[in-house]
Amino acid sequence: MTVPDGAHDPRLAERLEVVRSAVSDAARAAGRAAGEITTIVVTKFHPASMVRELHRLGVRDMGESRHQDAAPKAAELAELALRWHFVGQLQSKKARAVLSYASTVHSVDRGSLVDALQAAGVEVEVFIQLNLTDDPARGGVGEAGLLSVTERVLAAPTLRLVGLMAVAPQGDDARRAFARVREAAERMRTLAPDATRLSMGMSDDFVAAIAEGATHLRIGSAITGKRPARA
Ligand SMILES: *Cc1c(COP(=O)(O)O)cnc(C)c1O
After folding, report:
1. Of all protein residues, whose CA lies closest to atom 12 belonging to ligand 1?
2. CB under 8 Å, gap of 24 or more: what pairs does 52-56 form?
3. Which of 61, 86, 212, 226 could form a disulfide with 178 if both were Cys (CB 3.0 to 4.6 A apart)?
4. Cβ(65) to ligand 1 under 6 A?
5. Does the beta carbon of 110 sit less than 6 angstroms from any atom of ligand 1?
């Protein structure tokens, strides 16, 4: 299958509409207001033309996971009023460059990254990423380290801790995974009462995430279609 160029893909609007109504339905089913849920469209590896089209369709929150891919798009689209969310694993040496366009980083998981973000000297919203697996390569801090990373973020004046982020492990029951995130966030709020947001839920599991209180969904392929191969 060839990958459609976003600017000329009529199905992009259809898929966006399907996801928007599924989000509304899931919110209603959970007794929540759809307005309290932000859908971030993850456009990684798709061209700037698709981001432009999504903006035309009313999307303002864009998610990217790799700096080399995100930076040129953000530069090309600098005139659009977009919020860029960095959702991927972040090397400390790239922290400053990412903050030249991203207003929110969802993947803070260690003290050295907190220091690097702080050293950039710009205000940024951050989520701490929780790793729900035993594999450190997945990114995120384990539950045992969560409160110590929370303390590090709270001590960094340019970082505003807004919540907790996680990816549900493949093959696990997503609802149960997201319940763990909700409970971990409750513990985090004993130190950070303002960190009320939950960044969880992707194309295949956002309904379960909404049921467990997600405030920020990170949805890629269900809206963008199949991702091009990594460049
Ligand atoms: C790619 C990605 C997403 C979106 O994934 P889909 O399954 O395409 O919806 C969400 N979160 C992170 C961290 C990602 O890297």
Report:
1. 87
2. 52/6, 52/7, 52/77, 52/80, 53/6, 53/7, 53/9, 53/12, 54/6, 54/12, 54/16, 54/223, 55/80, 55/82
3. 212
4. yes
5. no
